[in-house]
Amino acid sequence: MKSISNINCLFSKAGSSLLAVCLAAIMLLSSCEKFVEVEDPPHQLTDDKVFTSDNSATSAMLSVYIAMMNDQFGNSGSFVFFSMSSLAGMSANELTWTQNNTTAPTFQEFSDRKLTPENTYVYSFWRDGYKYIYRLNAVLEGLKTATGMTEDVKTQLGGEARFMRAFCYFYLVNLFGDVPLVLNTNYQENMLLPRAPAEKVWAQIITDLKDAKGMLKAAYPTAERLRPNLYTASALLARAYLYTGKWEAAEQEADGIIQSGVYGSNLPALNTVFKKSSAEAIWQLQPVRANSNTTEGAQFLVLGTTRPNYELTPQMLSAFELGDNRKTEWVGFSDPLNNPTWAFPAKYKAGTGALTEYYVVFRLAEQFLIRSEARAMQGVTKLTAAKQDLNVVRGRAGLLPTLANDQPAILTAIAQERRVEFFAEFGHRWLDLKRTSKVNAEGLYPVPGPEMRANPKLEQNAAYK
């Protein structure tokens, strides 16, 4: 098991250097051509040559995306993709694990909301987050001394790395609260870092995202939306401002995306949202494993009339209003006649086979709801505009405009809309419950036991002492 210090030591060795990561990325590019079209760097490379050409430096950055998509759920983790959708979905009472403790006791801890520091999936969130942060720090350090690269590519990669580091820290700080703030690859400095206050981590997230916005262009660097652009950074920045109570700034960021025209003037049909050609997608990631689409498609979908392993709870099913087309389009039933509660998430509809779906990481509907909530929080003068944004999302689902009229009622309606729009999707519901103080101290996950034993400067979260 690898602590932060173990991860830093691992990547400092020649066998696991950034060069090795870069070469691994190059080998995978043949199956992931849409990430970027580059010529292979020279066959023989040394670490100090990774950042001497646009091609090899780009491959180093691509290796992070590929690793996120190549890691398996479980032993290697998937950080915030299926792990957040399923495990945080259990924490939020969206999903229940229908098997037994013998089959998967660590799953049962999430389903029962009784986590322990030794839970291997909790450890995967922490370990994999810092694994990617290390690689991103290595990219940023390499770019500082890069020679032979064009300024445009250097700037683009610097923006991507800062965005991705903020992305990783966003989930770490939301899941664990105070976390070590690692901003370089010096393992001797990082191996015994204490937990930084959450406020400091949030400040770094916002700084990285503002820097990324200044470095990224509105145009995507690929034909598809598989690498971040300016609006991708803005999407996460809008969310960060919302989570930290900066209402005017959240409204401004979301408004910039909506008004850009890049993503259309209306939300597209529900059955297109999670396709690889999704018009709503602000940022996607492409699955890279052979003959596979998303892990959600592989794990959530049920063939035949068997009971789902990941079953939507009665509370989640009853949250949909009568006539909500999201329940029709995004919820599956494996045995509707005999077992009408055997329901499962069906946003992604392809498990194996030809690649038809990409992970949709950020999408336009969230920006409407961010802008709606940010406007409502600013008081009476913006309540009408807040309702208009809310009704855009409701209208796409086939629902009538909200009847809410005052600030408390509108905020309640927005929270409800987020619940049914983002169920089983990147842990949105769990993070919403946490940020609005709807859960107690156990809203934070425990600091993993292996980290506590490796670093005596870490303190455990209060609910797990």
Automatic annotation (TrEMBL):
Tree of life domain: Bacteria
Signal found in the keyword field: yes
Protein name: Starch-binding associating with outer membrane
Domain RagB/SusD: from-to ranges: 347-435
Domain SusD-like N-terminal: 83-242
Protein family: Belongs to the SusD family.
Organism, scientific name: Pedobacter africanus
PROSITE patterns xrefs: PROKAR_LIPOPROTEIN (PS51257)
Compartments where located: Cell outer membrane
Cellular component, GO annotation: cell outer membrane
Pfam family, one: SusD-like_3
UniProt keyword annotations, A-Z: Cell outer membrane, Membrane, Signal
InterPro entries per the UniProt record, alphabetical: SusD-like_N (IPR033985), SusD_RagB_dom (IPR012944), TPR-like_helical_dom_sf (IPR011990)
Signal peptide: 1-24
